[in-house]
């Protein structure tokens, strides 16, 4: 066995420290972020829908209007993060959204629900692309899929742990004189405010300022990132306007935005309506579930999804990102989600939905390693925010359209067929982008880099 060179040893320890010191904390922020964003999906079938007299379309609109505020401010928010630093900006976002989320405890009408969901989107704008940008600025591209995979574990695990936690809070009906779903909103909001305050002191904007890195590790990370960024779009710009133009006129950014649209359309159709679909099993199959039963059933698809996400990201890191790492799961998800409609029992339906969840979560962290291959600086901030904006458009569309089509048709057949169509479209676009870039020589999803596996 060949001994590590000094450079390889420094690389291994630097990446390990980033993985331990930064990724778990940012992932915890993401966990709380996604729980606050989707808490409404647990509240609706457990009292909120009845108390506020919501139709499926109204619930879909309330779920989706979150993304309107998010979309409007997403790119400006990520540019502000690039200017002021992740520590300040991510802290500000968390405290703001925690305060808005807390107000859901006292919502009393559908109109108030719409307003608060919109304001929650405004408050959260830029968090996810900001977190992606922040982590991408700490490691070179050959390690980025691994780092983003570890970060992305927070999203499926939010439902694995968050659904039973939400169910437990909902079960405390009458606490402080509040209905159970209001108790849930109260207690899932407070951690965001607390984490926002801690983030101000804990996060660090760049490797050169990290006291927990040795000088050799700081120098290696800084040198690697500067060398890598020098050849990317935005790498030679000194001012934001030129980099913004570089991102907004880059065809690959727009194609990736459309690819991401399909994945997020499927993700939020599941996130917002799976608890409602499970609630419908009671009438469909003449059975009864308690609040905690429904919470645990909701969590089932997401634990295997977290496992698949981890190993899929690990494979992509070790062997290089390939188009099929993204397009393959899109095909599986696109076929499986409408197939769930034809299962004859709750167990079979949830099993097929589990396959869909595994497919979506396997692809997402690998997908997010692609934009930073050709964007840096403010261009990366703008490009990543633009791609995520397309995802937020999908979040609004999937939430509202799914509810509207369900009210119109009386069941979930048409809306879930539409989910399948968008995911298959994402697969086709990803393959087309790879083919196009191979013809032009541009860097896309397929990576030909070879590197020592220093983090095993």
From TrEMBL:
Gene3D superfamilies: MFS general substrate transporter like domains (1.20.1250.20). PROSITE patterns: MFS. InterPro entries: MFS, MFS_dom, MFS_trans_sf. It holds the Pfam family MFS_1. It comes from the Bacteria. Its main location: membrane. Keywords: Membrane, Transmembrane, Transmembrane helix, Transport. Residues 22-438 form the Major facilitator superfamily (MFS) profile domain. One of its GO terms (cellular component) is plasma membrane. It is found in: Cell membrane. The chain crosses the membrane at residues 18-35, 55-77, 89-108, 114-135, 147-171, 183-203, 253-275, 295-312, 324-342, 348-368, 375-400, 412-434. GO terms for molecular function: transmembrane transporter activity. It is a multi-pass membrane protein. PANTHER family: PERMEASE-RELATED, TRANSPORTER, PUTATIVE (AFU_ORTHOLOGUE AFUA_6G08340)-RELATED. Component of the tartrate utilization system and may allow entry of tartrate and tartrate dehydrogenase. This is Putative tartrate transporter.
């Amino acid at each position: 066995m060949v001994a590590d060179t000094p450079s390889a040893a420094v690389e291994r320890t630097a990446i390990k420290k980033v993985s331990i010191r930064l990724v778990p904390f940012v992932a915890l922020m993401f966990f709380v972020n996604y729980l606050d964003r989707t808490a409404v999906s647990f509240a609706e079938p457990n009292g909120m829908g009845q108390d506020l007299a919501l139709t499926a379309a109204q619930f879909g609109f309330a779920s989706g209007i979150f993304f309107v505020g998010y979309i409007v401010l997403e790119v400006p928010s990520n540019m502000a993060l690039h200017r002021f630093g992740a520590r300040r900006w991510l802290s500000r976002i968390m405290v703001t959204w925690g305060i808005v989320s807390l107000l859901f405890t006292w919502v009393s009408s559908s109109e108030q629900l719409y307003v608060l969901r919109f304001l929650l989107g405004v408050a959260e704008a830029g968090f996810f692309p900001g977190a992606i940008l922040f982590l991408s600025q700490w490691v070179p591209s050959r390690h980025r899929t691994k780092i983003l995979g570890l970060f992305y574990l927070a999203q499926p695990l939010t439902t694995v742990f968050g659904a039973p936690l939400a169910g437990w809070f909902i079960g405390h009906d009458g606490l402080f004189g509040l209905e159970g779903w209001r108790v849930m909103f109260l207690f899932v909001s407070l951690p965001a405010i607390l984490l926002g305050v801690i983030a101000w002191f804990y996060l660090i904007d760049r490797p050169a300022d990290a006291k927990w890195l040795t000088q050799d590790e700081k120098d290696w990370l800084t040198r690697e990132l500067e060398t890598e960024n020098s050849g990317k779009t935005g790498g030679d710009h000194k001012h934001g306007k030129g980099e913004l133009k570089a991102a907004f006129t880059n065809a690959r950014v727009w194609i990736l935005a459309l690819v991401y649209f399909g994945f997020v359309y499927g993700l939020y159709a599941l996130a917002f309506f799976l608890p409602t679909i499970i609630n419908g099993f009671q009438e469909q199959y003449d059975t009864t579930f308690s609040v905690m039963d429904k919470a645990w059933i909701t969590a089932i698809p997401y634990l295997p999804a977290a496992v698949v996400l981890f190993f899929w990201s690990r494979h992509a890191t070790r062997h290089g990102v390939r188009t099929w790492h993204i397009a393959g799961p899109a095909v599986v998800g696109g076929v499986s989600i409408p197939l769930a409609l034809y299962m004859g029992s709750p167990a079979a339906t949830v099993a097929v939905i589990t396959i869909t969840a595994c497919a979506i979560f396997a692809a997402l962290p690998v997908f997010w390693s692609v934009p930073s291959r050709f964007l840096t600086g403010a261009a990366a901030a703008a490009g990543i925010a633009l791609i995520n904006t397309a995802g937020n458009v999908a979040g609004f569309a999937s939430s509202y359209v799914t509810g509207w089509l369900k009210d119109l048709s009386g069941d979930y057949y048409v809306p879930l067929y539409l989910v399948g169509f968008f995911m298959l479209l994402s697969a086709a676009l990803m393959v087309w982008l790879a083919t196009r870039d191979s013809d032009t020589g541009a860097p896309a999803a397929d990576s030909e880099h070879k590197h020592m596996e220093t983090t095993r």
